[in-house]
Amino acid sequence: MVVIDAPKKSGVEPVVRPRDVLLQVDGFDIDTQGDYLDPGYGHLLLENISTRNKWAGDPVRLKIWRDGRAQDVVYRLPKAEDAARLVPEAPFDQEPEYLIAGGLVFQPLTKNYLRSWGQDWERRAPFRLAYFRNQDPAPERPAIVILSQVLPDIFNLGYQESRQLVLEKVNGQKVNYLSDLQQALQKPANGFHTLEFMKGDTLQRIVLDAATLEAATKRVLDRYGIGEEHVIISSAK
């Protein structure tokens, strides 16, 4: 498996470099797909080795191919810097965040959401969402809100199959957090809410009638037994 990129820190020489070929991790052979044979669970992605009897700060023995020969190096597992990731871990001690508008369900994109695709979520989760998991936040995109699913109702007829879409703007306002979405829905334009999604997604735009949105939301909540139309905990930017 070829190393494509390696994190750099000022004043620290990286142990692993781009174009290194990873041969072994802690004695486990790495195949061309980036898998290893776990004695308890069979073929797993190499990312799982970092959590196999290891903690942040522990050394990991690597065998790499560099400069035409095999070399042994020691890599120290770094502390997780969750705040520096575009797709963070979701806290386990609070309710999942969401916002429902006319049956459209919006959520922050988190690693916990991606893990809902099961043990092999890195491969099974939608590629366009999993792609963001190793990206760093930027001023123009510090976080991501997605349309995760649609609870069918006459109000959203035609959009009921839409899901896993990255929300970009609502009524012309950039949306990075659920709180942005909540504020944007207070400002319809010409009687409509216009939702724009990331370029390249299967659906680029949804237009909703602003006058009947509130009634539709209440109807959906009653039908599906949902107590609140939103749970928004973290809105700090």
How is this fold's topology laid out?
Blueprint: E1 21-25, E2 28-29, E3 35-38, E4 42-45, E5 59-66, E6 69-76, E7 98-101, E8 104-108, H1 111-114, H2 121-124, H3 127-130, E9 145-150, E10 165-170, E11 173-174, H4 178-184, E12 192-197, E13 205-209, H5 210-224, E14 230-231
Antiparallel strand pairs: 1-2, 1-5, 3-4, 5-6, 7-8, 7-14, 8-9, 9-10, 10-11, 10-12, 12-13
Structural commentary:
- 17% of the residues are buried.
- It is built from five helices and 14 strands.
- With 237 residues, the chain is α+β, with helices and mostly antiparallel strands.
- The strands form three sheets. Strands 7, 8, 9, 10, 11, 12, 13 and 14 form an eight-stranded antiparallel beta sheet that branches. It has a four-stranded antiparallel beta sheet with strand order 2-1-5-6, with no helix packed on it.
- It is elongated, with a radius of gyration of 22 Å.
- It has helices at residues 111-114, 121-124, 127-130, 178-184, 210-224, and strands at 21-25, 28-29, 35-38, 42-45, 59-66, 69-76, 98-101, 104-108, 145-150, 165-170, 173-174, 192-197, 205-209, 230-231.
- It folds into two domains: 21-76, no CATH class; 83-231, N-terminal domain of MutM-like DNA repair proteins (Alpha-Beta Barrel), CATH 3.20.190.
- β1 (21-25) and β2 (28-29) form a beta hairpin.
